[in-house]
Write a structure and sequence with these properties.
The complex is a heterodimer. Helices cover 77% and strands 1% of the residues of chain A. By secondary structure, chain A is mainly alpha-helical. In chain A, strand 1 and strand 2 form a beta hairpin. The longest helix of chain A is centred in the C-terminal third of the chain and has 35 residues. By secondary structure, chain B is an alpha+beta fold. In chain B, strands 6-7-8-3-9-10 form a 6-stranded mixed sheet, with helices on both faces. In chain B, strands 13-17-14-15-16 form a 5-stranded antiparallel sheet, with no helix packed on it. Chain B has 2 domains: 223 residues, 3-Layer(aba) Sandwich (Rossmann fold), CATH 3.40.50.300; 77 residues, Beta Barrel (OB fold (Dihydrolipoamide Acetyltransferase, E2P)). The chains are: A mainly alpha, B alpha+beta.
Chain lengths: 540, 312
């Protein structure tokens, strides 16, 4: 109907925007998934699929995975809600800094978080479910604080004030007005946290010891330690089924909870804390969270410096030496990580960026777009370990014998990062007012020029953020990488894991030292992206 | 200059534009007046090249625009809610069209300064559009469309989102601007006052068709039919005859009279009285006096025969 539209989405551009993501995901996601299904149903060592599924060990693993995910989610909510309340209702000095800093644990590699809790907990609690729950809470408070806090800041406080004039006390106001209004945000945040904890791998592998394993960790144990690919494949299918069920339940729940409330601008909602009680709430909520987040990281640094009864840089100096834990000197892992992560970021930006254009284009909503949309989000639920396992099974034989190729590592990392890239870029693209494009066309901009002058500058900010996320995710990616990285080319998380598997004080100190290095590389790259973003923002 | 010939646009079974023909002479302003959903925005989008015609022709300076994409038409459009480029400052917005045609940086700066002065925003070049008030954003949108000197300027309810006082001021400014620049323009609105104030000619649109087109005086004195009359606010239509409200005289008649005053509402210098006649019908009168009958008063009415217009 629109005279300009056929030209705006030139055929070649459309082919590219659909073809590249579909081809990439088809080969590197769907095909390995199919390979897992085939492998899982084909018995090789006398066991049938049913035997493995009804094994008491399987039942134990599924039960632990479920209850620890529920308990971790509850703990995360308890720790994060006071801070979410403070950020959602009050204006105070340093508020935006707190909002930014709270994101730090979320971009930290899981292996680093696991080590931080090894450092902070007394030996008795070091390897057990308590440590796992705390580490999960540390990792996920960012989700609750940001999602719930931001939503809270848009809920009209006058609704609660109206309830007060009708005779409701503070507790009833919270229970009958605030809580129902917050329910959609709470449910959304809890669902995300639950999924992350359900498919948790690095934290459980390091902190769970031999006694506790999630399905995800058990897939790794079966595949790598016992070399039972069939059991690993079957467990993957069990996990996929549970994740699909959880996603289905939470989307239904969210729809039921959704209240069409009047949303207000943040500046009309926030106010300074006035009474002593309010001040104590804000200080306690923010301060408590700060302590919970800072203490493990500080002790992580301390432990990396503890060698031979005193403190020193011994562990760091030893990173340059050959070690029995790795085939190479540990510092090479730093280089490997950065190179792999850079390549993974490039792949994720190209594939994810094109996919974002495709799913948010003028035809969004038709069948083809929906297929791509679902396909893009699936790697989130399929989990990293499943991707790694899928690669090992699918790319084992010519002509697809890729599993030993160096480029397969960044491809796996990019798959993990792509859903995030799409989630960050697509909303920005959708938010562009179609009339801005029309206005540009009327002022003489050709269709290609419109894309360059309107879409690209607006999206470049989102692309920079997505690049930062993709890089951080790839740096810390452990689940897929542990399957794919060659022994002579370990990444930082893999090297840390190898050191942890060795006895001895120096090995432990080197693991901590590498974790600190990984944390610093992640922080520096996030900082550089932030700076690049600001500079570009001034320029465009 | 601009000629639209039996333009038709269908959305599924309904015709948003149903055989519309319109001529705009060079330097003239035609306002298109109609209720929302009557097809006036579709007409503008069709002229701009954002909407393909199912039937009909659009000619600009004698050239058929069929198949010419929007960015090659040289037509300026001021959007309803401005549609400014929020990622650019005022200079980036107003200079956009000049940059597209390849002007030098210096020429762009000079022309932008000139246009901003014209719309009363001198010195605003480096301001971010997000910091501007609604009226200022509207002026930037106008400057952006004017800067590349389009052959025809199209305006889609440009004052629709502004409050009354601001609207009146911008209306005056626009009127001066149109006179000074002698622009050829099509201005779409649902507001009768805007349409009459700006239009050399006014086209009344209804359900995808143009019901009547003429000068404001022509429209006011000889509405084409009852619908047009009612849309213009003339409600005294009795048996195919229109009685102009200013031709109705009303006198207090406490003990007799022909009816009762139902309401009295002041519109600037005149008061509109609605009189319920004893036969059940109503008659509207525009009275200039300060002491006018109040609601509930019994009154006599008298109609000046010169104020009766017979409708076709």
């Amino acid at each position: 109907m629109d005279a300009n539209r056929p030209a705006l989405t030139a055929r070649s551009w459309r082919v590219l925007a659909y073809g590249v993501p579909l081809g990439f995901l088809g080969l590197f996601f769907v095909y390995p998934l199919v390979a897992i299904v085939v492998r899982g149903l084909r018995g090789t060592n006398g066991e049938t699929a049913l035997d493995i599924l009804t094994d008491p060990l399987t039942r134990e693993v599924v039960w632990f995975t479920l209850w620890q995910a529920v308990a971790s989610t509850a703990l995360t909510l308890v720790i994060a809600l006071p801070a979410a309340y403070a950020l959602g209702r009050y204006r105070f000095p340093g508020r935006s800094l707190v909002r930014a800093l709270v994101l730090v644990p979320f971009v930290l590699p899981t292996v680093v978080v696991a080590l931080a809790f090894l450092a902070v907990l007394p030996e008795r609690l070091e390897r057990g479910w308590e440590a796992i729950l705390l580490a999960h809470a540390f990792f996920n408070v960012a989700v609750v604080v940001r999602v719930v806090g931001t939503f809270w800041a848009s809920v009209d406080p006058r609704v609660s004030e109206a309830a007060a004039t009708l005779g409701a006390g503070p507790w009833r106001r919270f229970r009958e007005v605030t809580l129902p209004l917050l329910a959609p945000a709470l449910a959304a945040a809890a669902a995300i946290v639950f999924l992350f904890c359900f498919t948790s791998f690095g934290i459980v592998l390091v902190l769970g010891g031999p006694r506790f394993a999630t399905i995800e960790a058990e897939i790794y144990n079966q595949a790598v330690r016992l070399y039972d690919l069939q059991a690993a494949a079957l467990l993957s299918l069990v996990q996929l089924a549970f994740v699909a069920l959880a996603v289905w339940v939470t989307t239904r729940l969210e729809r039921r909870l959704a209240v069409a409330g009047q949303l207000r601008a943040e500046r009309d909602v926030l106010r300074r804390p006035r009474t002593a009680g309010e001040k104590a709430l804000v200080a306690g909520g923010i301060g408590g969270l700060a302590l919970f987040l800072a203490l493990p990281l500080a002790l992580l640094v301390e432990r990396s410096l503890a060698v031979g009864g005193g403190h020193g840089l011994g562990a760091y100096r030893a990173l340059g030496d050959e070690t029995s834990a790795l085939l190479v000197a540990p510092w090479e892992a730093v280089v490997n990580s950065i190179v792999y992560a850079a390549a993974a970021t490039a792949i994720a930006l190209v594939v994810g960026g094109l996919a974002a254009f495709a799913v948010s284009g003028p035809r969004s909503g038709d069948g083809r777009t929906r297929v791509l949309d679902v396909l893009l989000m699936l790697p989130l639920g399929a989990s990293a370990v499943m991707l790694g396992l899928g690669f090992v099974i699918a790319f084992d034989e010519p002509p697809l014998a890729f599993r030993a190729a160096p480029w397969i590592v960044p491809v796996g990392q990019a798959l993990v990062a792509i859903p995030f890239v799409v989630r960050i870029v697509a909303p920005t693209l959708r938010a562009i007012d179609e009339r801005e494009r029309e206005a540009a066309a009327l002022l003489g901009a050709s269709p290609g020029r419109v894309r360059r002058e309107i879409d690209l500058p607006i999206v470049s900010r989102a692309l920079a953020v997505a690049a930062g996320f993709a890089f951080a995710i790839s740096l810390g990616e452990f689940g897929a990488t542990v399957f794919l990285a060659r022994p002579e080319r370990p990444t930082l998380p893999v090297a840390i894991f190898r050191f942890l598997g060795r006895p001895g004080e120096l090995n432990a100190a080197q693991a901590y030292a590498l974790a600190v290095v990984l944390m610093l590389v992640t922080a520096v790259s996030a900082f550089l992206v932030e700076r690049a973003r600001v500079r570009r923002g001034g320029w465009v | 200059m601009l000629r639209v010939e039996s333009a038709t646009v269908r959305f599924g079974p309904t015709a948003a534009l149903d055989g519309v023909s319109l001529d705009v002479a060079g330097g003239n302003v035609v306002t298109v007046l109609g209720p929302s959903g009557c097809g006036k925005t579709t007409l503008l989008r069709a002229i701009a090249g954002l909407q393909r015609l199912d039937e009909g022709l659009i000619l600009l300076e004698g050239r058929n625009l069929d198949g010419v994409p929007a960015h090659e038409r040289g037509v300026g459009l001021v959007f309803q809610d401005h549609a400014l480029f929020h990622h650019r400052d005022v200079l980036g917005n107003v200079g956009f069209g000049l940059r597209m045609r390849g002007d030098s940086r210096r020429r762009i700066a000079a022309r932008v300064r000139e246009v901003l002065e014209l719309v009363g925003l001198a010195g605003f070049e480096r301001r971010s559009v997000a910091t501007l008030s609604g009226g200022e954003q509207q002026r930037v949108a106008l400057a952006r469309a004017l800067a590349p000197e389009p052959r025809v300027l199209l305006l889609d309810e440009p004052l629709g989102s502004l409050d009354r006082r601001l609207r009146d001021r911008l209306l005056e400014d626009l009127d001066h601007l149109f006179d000074r620049l002698r622009v050829t323009a099509v201005y779409v609105t649902h507001d009768q006052a805007e349409a009459f104030a700006l239009g050399d000619r006014v086209a009344v649109m209804r359900a995808g068709r143009i019901a009547q087109i003429g000068s404001p005086d022509e429209l006011w004195s000889r509405p084409a039919d009852e619908d047009v009359a009612r849309f213009l606010g003339l409600r005294n239509v009795v048996g195919g005859e229109l009685v102009r409200p200013e031709a109705v005289a009303v006198r207090l008649a406490p003990d007799g009279g022909a009816g009762v005053v139902e309401s009295a509402v002041r519109h600037g210098p005149t008061v509109r009285l609605v009189v319920r006649l004893d036969d059940g019908s109503t008659l509207e009168a525009a009275v200039a006096a300060l002491d006018h009958p109040a609601p509930g008063d019994r009154v006599d009415v008298e109609v000046d025969p010169a104020g009766i217009v017979s409708l076709p």
